[in-house]
Amino acid sequence: MKLYIKNMVCSRCKMVVKSALETLGHSLLAVDLGEVELAMPVTDDEKKAIAEQLKAFGFEIINDKKSRTIDKIKTLIITLVHNQNIPLKTNLSDYLSQELHQDYSILSNLFSEVTATTIEQFYIHQKIEKVKELLLYDEISLSEIADSLNYSNVAHLSNQFKKVTGFSPTHFKNLKVVKRKQIEDL
Fold first, then answer.
1. Smallest Cα–Cα separation from 117: which of 70, 83, 157, 160?
2. For a tag site, which of 55, 99, 122, 123 has the least CB within 10 Å?
3. Rounded to whole angstroms, what are the CA distances from 114 to 37, 109, 119, 132?
4. Which residues pair with 146 in a beta bridge?
5. Reported pTM
6. Distance, CA of 150 to CA of 127 (rounded, Å)
7. What is the distance between the alpha carbons of residues 10 and 59, in angstroms, rounded to a whole number?
8. Distance of alpha carbon 125 from alpha carbon 135, whole angstroms
């Protein structure tokens, strides 16, 4: 039996969900971002117990198809920006269409309808949060950050950063109080 889970965005999320379900006595066949495959079907009461346990850690069970699709889009983008250091070989729309086996216009319309933002805006906000993180680490240059996040050049990154945050990357880096957002809050 598969359960679809909202807010699973990293390997630590997978570990927490796995531990929570094992604590409740469930055997798992697989744990991936956004979904868990249980060895045995669960009753409605067991599903409620799972939902309560997961809610304590900031996760939710997703029951409808629209929400699952939105969560898959978000998970793919978050994984692409935050967890993979590989350049996108195609554009974002083609990547999402290939991964989800759906036409991008359908995905885009659904995403906009449900989240009140576009896929592109969500992608940009994820990239800007990654830029903030890398600026705070202060280990690589702005040029290297631009390259790692597939910006055409530093000017493009800087312009987009300022448009989203209101600050230049340099000014942001020099701020005493840094305001980063959690991935699931974007």
1. 70
2. 55
3. 26, 9, 11, 27
4. none
5. 0.77
6. 10
7. 12
8. 15
- Beta-sheet strands, E only, within the chain: 2-6, 28-32, 35-38, 60-62
> What is the distance between the alpha carbons of residues 84 and 99, in angstroms, rounded to a whole number?
15
Question: Rg of the chain over CA atoms, in angstroms?
Answer: 18
Per-residue pLDDT of the chain (186 residues; tens, 9 = 90+): 899 998 888 889 999 999 999 999 999 999 988 889 999 999 999 999 999 999 999 999 988 899 999 999 999 999 889 876 666 778 999 999 999 999 999 999 999 999 999 999 999 999 999 999 999 888 899 999 999 898 999 999 999 999 999 999 989 888 856 566 666 665
Yes or no: say if 48 and 32 are a contact pair by the CB < 8 Å rule.
no
